[in-house]
Amino acid sequence: MKQKIRMGMVGGGAGAFIGDVHRRAARLCGDIELVAGVFGRNPESSKACARDLFVPENRVYTDYEAMIKGELALPADKRIEFVSIVTPNQWHFPIANAFLKAGFNVLCEKPMTLNSKQALELKATLEASGKLFALMHNYTGYPMVKQAKQMIADGVLGKLCKINVEYSLGWLASPNAGKQAVWRVDPKQAGISGCMADIGTHAEQLINYITGLKITEVSADLATFVEGRELDDDGTVLLRFCNGARGVIFASEVSTGEENNFIIKIYGTKAAVEWRQQSPEDLIVRSNDEPMKIYRRNWAGTCDAARKVCNLPAGHPEGFLEAFASIYRSFADDIHAQRAGKAPVGDYPGIEDGISEMRFLEAIVENSNGDKKWTKL
Amino acid sequence: MKQKIRMGMVGGGAGAFIGDVHRRAARLCGDIELVAGVFGRNPESSKACARDLFVPENRVYTDYEAMIKGELALPADKRIEFVSIVTPNQWHFPIANAFLKAGFNVLCEKPMTLNSKQALELKATLEASGKLFALMHNYTGYPMVKQAKQMIADGVLGKLCKINVEYSLGWLASPNAGKQAVWRVDPKQAGISGCMADIGTHAEQLINYITGLKITEVSADLATFVEGRELDDDGTVLLRFCNGARGVIFASEVSTGEENNFIIKIYGTKAAVEWRQQSPEDLIVRSNDEPMKIYRRNWAGTCDAARKVCNLPAGHPEGFLEAFASIYRSFADDIHAQRAGKAPVGDYPGIEDGISEMRFLEAIVENSNGDKKWTKL
Amino acid sequence: MKQKIRMGMVGGGAGAFIGDVHRRAARLCGDIELVAGVFGRNPESSKACARDLFVPENRVYTDYEAMIKGELALPADKRIEFVSIVTPNQWHFPIANAFLKAGFNVLCEKPMTLNSKQALELKATLEASGKLFALMHNYTGYPMVKQAKQMIADGVLGKLCKINVEYSLGWLASPNAGKQAVWRVDPKQAGISGCMADIGTHAEQLINYITGLKITEVSADLATFVEGRELDDDGTVLLRFCNGARGVIFASEVSTGEENNFIIKIYGTKAAVEWRQQSPEDLIVRSNDEPMKIYRRNWAGTCDAARKVCNLPAGHPEGFLEAFASIYRSFADDIHAQRAGKAPVGDYPGIEDGISEMRFLEAIVENSNGDKKWTKL
Amino acid sequence: MKQKIRMGMVGGGAGAFIGDVHRRAARLCGDIELVAGVFGRNPESSKACARDLFVPENRVYTDYEAMIKGELALPADKRIEFVSIVTPNQWHFPIANAFLKAGFNVLCEKPMTLNSKQALELKATLEASGKLFALMHNYTGYPMVKQAKQMIADGVLGKLCKINVEYSLGWLASPNAGKQAVWRVDPKQAGISGCMADIGTHAEQLINYITGLKITEVSADLATFVEGRELDDDGTVLLRFCNGARGVIFASEVSTGEENNFIIKIYGTKAAVEWRQQSPEDLIVRSNDEPMKIYRRNWAGTCDAARKVCNLPAGHPEGFLEAFASIYRSFADDIHAQRAGKAPVGDYPGIEDGISEMRFLEAIVENSNGDKKWTKL
């Protein structure tokens, strides 16, 4: 009988949002089993959480260092094969670094670290470890995002010219937006940026994932609308790309009434694509020479790369969770490959995305604070 | 340590669609474990399927009778606590009936049986058994369907007048639509109706679920567009309701280009609601006296009954799978209650929905074949 | 210098809705001048209306008979070249008949007459007169309706199978819906049907216009939801077509919250089209073999027949008025042809549409009142 | 009998786009008559155009100076009461200035002049003349734009924080985009900017019209994507407003596949509005505390200011032309007032909008060419 992949988790205790999504995504895969973890810093609530998750009490640890030690003490065929890190930002680096050093595969929430220095250090650790590392940028897991990527790779859009990204949420419009909000605008926990670290990095990463283009220069206007916040809760960034394309990211967590309105529009000389996270089953393709087309997930026209991450027939809506799970699926496939001594495929965001997002953040924060028009990345 | 709920499955072998959805829905719950089953009629492929599902080989059976016998031979705390029946229609009744008689809880795909006689017999068996029974009408699991139901119960729509339901798919437009298609238009496997049994029953059940209204008379025009088919692949039904409301269901599996386009519009004297399965996060509310409102899942305005089945914040799309899983969640909650000797809540479709859908099918087939304008239910 | 076409009008006095639309549509053409009329039955308000419309007082008449007499008394190059009839239904026939007999071209609001007997009589008059006759079914004037018609004529949809039409309004949901409402549900003014005469005829005519298919059998359920009304304010009709296609029209004027929600969906063996009057710039084309396409007015893919009635570039929304005006444009072109002794083109609805809509109305009213399943047309 | 308002036109000859729109808008008003003009610089084609427009040959002039002279030579009750200027940009100022000086009312296409110096000079001329001046920013004529303006004035949105405007067209993506395109990217005819003068000014003006907020600082990145063009065909501008709000305008005429995609989103502390020119009948209103609302033109919730410019009931689509015509309507109303010796209402864009748009253009061009982050207006 086959063995399920053994997963550990750090973070994701009571009241957490993203930790629960990670667990549900892992469950969906069917071959991943959560067997160990630190579910928050309060040992009692961590244990309670573990009970609800059917994690044995002796695999619940007080902190990540104890977890590494405890797991290493187990026989190789019992200990976790990877850890998911779902803590606030400032813990990503030390935990990821430590698990990699200890010889565990790591799947880490974004943003990867607090700065590019940590990011580069993590890269060195990763390379020395020979282990697997995934950075959870879940939006890359959507089938129609992969469809956009493929169409661009196939030249359907011609030369890319303009990239406009909107990412608007309203949840931080009020000063007291709950537990999830507190750490995201606290420099100690979140780093040098609030809104842009939280969602601007998704925008930067998704552009790069879909188009393959690197941002070379930025000009930014970060803002803090809610009094007393130490970090930005809103920002707009002008973009220049390596190939001469231009663009803009406008991201906000104080856009009243917006849910999770992430829209990317990419224009080339021949055609353009538009993808809207809140209607993720559609990829809108426009050109001057043909009627507008809406590619629908798993319907005619869906490319192989997109079909591979489809679970349901067209018209049976898939969403955020399935996109998330498709990252877990690819990561788990690489662990199976690892078991079999095969090379990993690496079809998920990773260390380079993390380095890139840190450089992006550092550049826009510097630019926004200065008088210079452009800052190079 | 808590024990997961032990689930068995009959059907859902290689190439099956809905069986896989059931398993993924069960997995999402987190506290359900698939431990036994008959995954198709070919023993070898059934075993192969079981291996992929981490079901132990000694719990894979050659047929449902062997499964009942085998499971009954196990100690009570090992044997399955419920079986999911995901076979073609003609097997629903014998299997459900047998498992109930043997003392197992049953979750069964729709349509419940082949005719109302079987439906009533199953009801008798169920009542004698004291066990739990759920009928999988997954669309009732969507949060915004529950929102519609609640708003109508609260009187927001006033007296209901008109109910229009469209359910269009294009997949059976070609004569050879694959394995999934074959049995759905084979009278031996599907019963007296093809399209209407497959999706018309969803329409009838959803109307009843949301509005609480019973259909009292129908006038139907069932059609078979693809030559050689023995059952309807399309149909339209005029509806009259107990309260004087009127309506129409038009359902088709030969509507070229349609994916799974299920739309329900309900008009009352004060307001109206519209829900579209392919955009399930929205509930559109219209009235003559106010601007159009779009209630969004888990956003302001979402009622408790809907929030209870939300997993993600607004703007993070949920879909078909989560709706499916919410039925599993409620059924699993009742099994926990059963373990604890508590009364079940029954917040899922059941035996009465199955009886109702059979009477509806029998009435429309009779009417469509005759010269009489109306047939009473 | 060229001469503008001289137009007269009967109806369309103070508070009228459709008369004003006719006048604005005529104005848009640029070569039509309103020079005479009877603007309602009250002579004073008719004169006041005329003043606002720059119609000379000596061309304002007390009734249509006086108007015919007065205009005939003028020299041929002064008298009106056509009359627009925009009265309640019961006046359509006598006025149109009288003007045709007197040698005037006629443009008449729908429904053409009160019954098929009048319709046939009008046809005889028309044929004897040698004059031009247009029936105002304005929805046929929309570019994307013409696009649908052309694509079907070109065989893009294959053999047509299913035609579903929805036409929902909410304005008659309350008992007192104003002046416009009163006559529409008064048998003396509206004829044998309320809702179906008002909007069901649009549905029937549009189906025929776009597809070229004739309805051969109907089964109907007309309803009156608001107490005290003598005519239907709602109805649903099952349709069978000459080529074996099936369909449904559901029309309602008591669908709370609906504005003017007219949707037609036509499914063929190869592809399907959907047009929504409230988003008239789009024609949605679906098939099982290609991504969904949205043909946009005057964008790539628009056929010549549609482009001919486009006034603005794509993305500059046109609407109801332009569609209306395109009927006037075609009718005016035929009057120019008439002046030049050339044959008319007849690119607008006419006498046959009027006969057809009367037969349709008579059949559905008869069927709805009886016990027979089907009524032949 | 009343007299129609006598209108003249400069520009709008064969092949022109906007001139024809002006004429159709004027016609829609019903009380405006085109009686004189210079329809392009070729006298023969100007005369031919005039014939089609029913303009008498003796009122067709060779140039605008001749037109002023000719019209002044007519008796006051024959000569034009206003002139519409629909030429390329560089002619706006000299023609408007001359007509105002000669005592004519002027309605002028945007952008008003080539620079702010001209704009201020025109203002001086206007003030000295005592005549009426309208600047055609047609988007302000849409009912739902007026609805947005009113809701903001009423405080529904709270304090405004963020304003995001997109204006994307694809028509200049190819180097040869026809006659309309040539002058728009020719510095001699268009001025210092191409795309931003053509559509960026609409964005700037609409923001100011709806919100009442002035832009105080800009940071811009203008681009020219098609080789050989001397002016920008694309640009993005960061905005800072007098009240602390931030925003962005991204405008492009090389966004392949876009028609006339003008979207404005305005976020306040309490609520937000979104208006899309291609779906102009909707105003989307969002907040964190209520379900999303879609205000529909002329439906419940429409304010008086918006209703005033509605011509048709809700659900009967109005569009670009009606918005245009509503500017003409207001301007014509002021001419009626002028006739009667009453004060004008001025409910249309005017001289201040023209000055503002010139300052905006000059600031963004200067900023885009320099290294400074921000340029003050």
Estimated structural class of chain A: alpha/beta
Average pLDDT level of chain A: 97
Residues in helix, % of chain A:
25-40%
Q: What is the second-level CATH architecture of the largest domain in chain A? A: 2-Layer Sandwich
Percentage of residues in DSSP E strands of chain A? 15-25%
Q: What's the story with the biggest beta sheet of chain A?
A: 9 strands, mixed
Largest interface: A-D, 47 and 47 residues
What oligomeric state is this? homotetramer
At the fourth level of CATH, the homologous superfamily of the largest domain in chain A is Dihydrodipicolinate Reductase, domain 2
Rg calculated over all Cα atoms of chain A: 21 Å
